[in-house]
UniProtKB/TrEMBL annotation:
SUPFAM superfamilies: Trypsin-like serine proteases (SSF50494). Pfam families: Trypsin_2. It comes from the Bacteria. This is Serine protease. The lineage of its organism: Bacteria, Pseudomonadati, Pseudomonadota, Alphaproteobacteria, Hyphomicrobiales. InterPro entries: Peptidase_S1_PA.
Amino acid sequence: MSTCVTGPFCQGTSSESEKGASVKELFLAILILFVPGNVAPVFSAPPVEKTIVYIECTTSDKTVLHGSGVVVSPQGHVLTALHIAPDNAVCRGSIGVADPQSLRNMVRQPISTGVDATLLRFSLPGAYDYAQFCPLEDWMVRKDIFVSGFPDNTGTGTPSFRRGVLATVLPDSSGFLESDAQTIRGMSGGPVFSKNFAGIIGIVAGARFDGSGAVSSYEILSAEFFAKLLGLTKSEIPCFHETREVTLPAEMQHWKAGDPPLNLGVRVDEGMCFLASIWGQFTNTSDTVVVSAREDGFYYLDGTSNASGLRGGAARCFWYD
């Protein structure tokens, strides 16, 4: 007399040998679903170099100022430091390269920020790649950032990136944040990115010196300080993560047969998601619960829905940094 194995692999009246083979086959199939490999290709935003601008401004007394900026709208608006592009200056810029032969005319926008920031716009219409901005919270202090721009007399003509940390997240009365990310002449006005390049913290402002003349900190002009005034776009994805493990909302923690695919809200270039648990009836090899990456770049929790039984599962996700 045959008996049925209790639990989710119960298959009725099959023989013990058949049952053992079937259980082993199903168990192997489910184990494969736990392995977080073989996902879709990484989906990434356009290179940030396409948003970094080399700027030359000529003042009314023919003084030529060199600096950097960042494209902040699809219409070609460029955020930069006011001391690089003063009100009496005519400015030109090139995207992604410090090349005097590639400079294009820029028009000053009639907006006063009240701080060391101004808004220019490329005269040539087009659809521009642009950077979004990162809202800041208290827990983001000491998070990694990258300052960028075009140092004077650069030998390559390409943007330079310097790594540092956010020393403060609350701007002072002039809109400045502090960092240890070293900047040099020519990088003023350049973008300061979050470590994952999801958005800008602000722009390079300069350095603060102590009584002996040594640098005490490097200053960043907070983008959030004037984001509303300039119509900057908030980053669509998190710039920083408070914890390594993703806190999934209650409605995203479990999937069961019959439910639509569950978007876990994590992109494959941001983190990794995998099956944490499964439950229910798996009576043949086509019964699945799986975490997979789809063409939109997000991880999904999903599975098969058929008449062979009820089943489900839960996922866990972790940010890369």
